[in-house]
Write the structure tokens for this entry.
Amino acid sequence: MIQLREYQKEISINGLEILKKFKILYLAMEVRTGKTLTSLHISDLYGAKNVLFATKKKAIPSILNDYKLLNPNYQITVINDESLHKVDDTFDLVIHDEHHRFGAYPKPNKSAKLFKQNYGNLPMIFLSGTPFPESYSQVFHQFWISKQSPFIESNFYKWAKNYVNITQRNLGYGMVNDYSDANFKKIKPIIEPYIITFTQAKAGFETNVKETVLYCDINTTNLIKQLTKDLVIEGKEEVILADTAVKLQSKIHQLSSGTIKFESGNSKVLDYSKAYFIAEKFKDKKIAIFYKFKEELEAIRAVFKYKLTTDLTEFNTSDKNIALQFISGREGISLKMADCLVAYNIDFSATTYFQFKDRLTTKERKENNLYWIFSKGGIEEKIYKAVQNKKSYTLNLFKKDFMKPIKKNLTFYEYAVTNDIVKISDYTYKNMSTYKIYSYKELNKEYELFKKDHGI
């Protein structure tokens, strides 16, 4: 049977009182401080008989192991969010891991809606090391899933009127509301009674994360330049099409690490330079490699061969390296057996950046080494600068970095492409970012106003 640390015991006692009083407990404990084990212990103290624990797929084995070691007096079902619809049982307590994933706004995501519908009446324990990573507006739907939410507003828009400084921003095709500037001074006293915060420093961690950027020559640089200029590259069998800003951003992101998804839907590794660079640079190390696109995994496999696994258990019990995708590997798992982390690419999300950095952290480890492999002339360095400043690499930032200034003779077609608008029939257009449908007349009117506003 596992023994809890003293701070975990104290948090459990305090957390039990909050859960009893409010039916909601939010454990905002930094990674590696033991929030999973603490939540399982609180559930035992609460007297639960059947607990549902929703998490990410790769974290399930670790949670089941903690449950086995703790040996509490209740049954547990551990499942990933995407499989919640398969659950057919009655529970008396729910734990939701990496709870910030329910922080989408202004509308809740699909999993949050299902969670509220099925378990909104039950006592809940929320777990996250980064509760509101990008905006305090992320707080609303995290509590909204419970019918015991401290907020009286029934939806985000009503809540925003009271807690958000609503501004507007121009997305090129028009003005939209920006709900990111929430007033935390008003929010804090309402949610504070529900939350227990605990840091690695309080737990006695003295870990230093050392980040190093390494640059690699790659053979797709000219393709990036050509695509940025022409928005299309036609080969003998395949086409690379970037007829919207969103697609251009994605294609440049792929090409910067040597892969591409063609217009046909087929994908391919175009260059193995990064994989060979990593294999040579870290040949004497046991490493965890994080990748973004599936073809990057194929490049890594082709170079590392039998020295690579994607299974955490095999990684922990062998001398193999491991490859994990950013989204699935950034949360809920420990990579303490790795000598260092190596990033084959970089994700647009600031949340992913900060969670990824902590995958090596343990109380005993004093220094974590993290290496970013960037292509010379690629997009990665620009993304890195944004996420380091807690900003996701948005389409607006991309346009400033890669897209040409507004031309004084901007054509109707160029205006549409720049603003992610595509033709879907003879007289109908669609904005691929907002899904707004335009008639030719409506879009042309907007185009003429745009020209007038910019003196074109």
About this structure: The chain has three domains: 6-198, 208-398, 407-453. Residues 407-453 form one domain.
